[in-house]
From TrEMBL:
Binds 1 [4Fe-4S] cluster. The cluster is coordinated with 3 cysteines and an exchangeable S-adenosyl-L-methionine. It comes from Kushneria aurantia. The gene is pqqE. This is PqqA peptide cyclase. Catalyzes the cross-linking of a glutamate residue and a tyrosine residue in the PqqA protein as part of the biosynthesis of pyrroloquinoline quinone (PQQ). It is an enzyme of class 1 (oxidoreductase). The lineage of its organism: Bacteria, Pseudomonadati, Pseudomonadota, Gammaproteobacteria, Oceanospirillales.
Length: 376
């Protein structure tokens, strides 16, 4: 553990613990065109991506720093030809590796190679519980059958499997079907997460936002299934922000437990942090992972709760939700230091509820994400 004075903060402040998790965004390239994608509107090109050696160095630094889990993500991480090498580096460094994938471009042979290299876990995304909805949302013909076949290969190799589903207006009526699908595929865990409106998803908010009644009905189904399937299927539920009364502890607190590294090597406290103006993000091409975690201006900008307004300072949940999401506060209030407008005590709470109601009433079509080939 590092000395807290390395951050330039008074030694009397609480020590900064090392991160537990690293989200390694290997690439923004992806075979799908999902309208709920939370990656930035301006994607990073293949020509700007970190090299294999860069990522291997970062993974070694992560292990030395105290990271326990590495989530290999994207885009689609399998678009990187060196994915097996990076999994092997995780295994060598005793880092638990979780592959977050669409499952449509990994052959059985390559999956076996990843397993042999030491892959610990697979997290497979489904856009729909039926072929029609999966293809409608992903924009890829035949995607559903490819995902089911991939899941079967994962279980044949006895790798743990999690299904990940982003819920929105086009698939929120399929909650029961997603649960049945997870059971049929032998998944150990199912994550049902309502769309988070950042990046490209914000561009599609009026096409994605479901009505409140449908959200409440879906949450009730999830709670019933959690009780019914306890010990058989773990079901994680990430509730929608816009209809909530209390904010979620975004990233379990800014700079407290996890960090992201973008395809080009920027160290971020959260996936969407680049939308906040005035923050200085350090590059892993020029700094070590420890430098970024302990010393970088962006990570220290919103650590703790001292920056929050008086209402939050007096709240008993101050050290539980840490004021919520900085990006959401900026988006609605114009000030990233404000309390999350999701909070019922926020002066902007009614504004975000009004946004949700208005968007859910619109009959908007998906704007699909298109990936330019130039620069690859």
């Amino acid at each position: 553990m590092s000395d807290p004075t390395l951050t330039g903060k008074p030694a009397s402040e609480p020590r900064i613990d090392p991160p537990m998790g690293l989200l390694a965004e290997l690439t923004h390239r992806c075979p799908l065109q999902c309208p709920y994608c939370s990656n930035p509107v301006e994607l990073e090109r293949r020509s700007d991506e970190l090299t294999t050696a860069d990522w291997q160095r970062i993974l070694c630094e992560a292990a030395a720093l105290g990271v326990l889990q590495v989530h290999l993500s994207g885009g689609e991480p399998a678009a990187r030809r060196d994915l097996t090498e990076l999994v092997a580096t995780c295994a060598e460094q005793q880092l638990y590796s979780n592959l977050i994938t669409a499952g449509v471009n990994i052959s059985p042979q390559r999956l076996a190679e990843l397993a042999d290299a030491g892959l610990d876990h697979v997290q497979l995304s489904f856009q729909g519980a039926t072929p029609e909805v999966t293809e409608q949302v992903s924009g890829l013909r035949g995607a559903h059958d490819k995902k089911r076949a991939f899941a079967a290969e994962v279980r044949a190799l006895e790798l743990p499997l999690t299904l990940n589903v982003v819920l929105h207006r086009a698939n929120i009526d399929q909650v029961d079907d997603f649960i049945a699908l997870a059971l049929a595929l032998g998944a150990e865990r199912l994550e049902l997460a309502h769309a988070q409106y950042y990046g490209w998803a914000l561009h599609n908010r009026s096409a994605l936002m479901p009505p409140r009644a449908e959200v409440m009905a879906a949450l009730a189904k999830v709670e019933q299934a959690q009780a019914r399937l306890k010990g058989r299927l773990a079901i994680d539920s990430v509730v929608p922000d816009y209809y909530a009364r209390r904010p979620k502890p975004c990233m379990n607190g800014w700079g407290r437990q996890t960090l992201n590294v973008t395809p080009s090597g920027l160290g971020l406290p959260c996936h969407a942090a680049q939308r906040i103006p005035g923050l200085e993000f350090w590059s892993l091409r020029e700094h070590t992972l420890a430098d970024v975690w302990y010393r970088s201006p962006a990570f220290n900008a919103f650590r703790g709760t001292d920056f929050l307004p008086d209402t939050c300072q007096r709240c008993e949940r101050r050290d539980i939700d840490f004021g919520g999401c900085r990006c959401q506060a900026l988006m609605v209030t114009g000030d990233a230091r404000q309390m999350d407008p999701v909070c019922e005590f926020s002066p902007w709470h009614d504004d975000i509820q009004t946004l949700a109601i208005a968007d859910s009433a619109r009959d908007a079509a998906f704007a699909y994400r298109r990936f330019a080939r130039r620069g690859e």
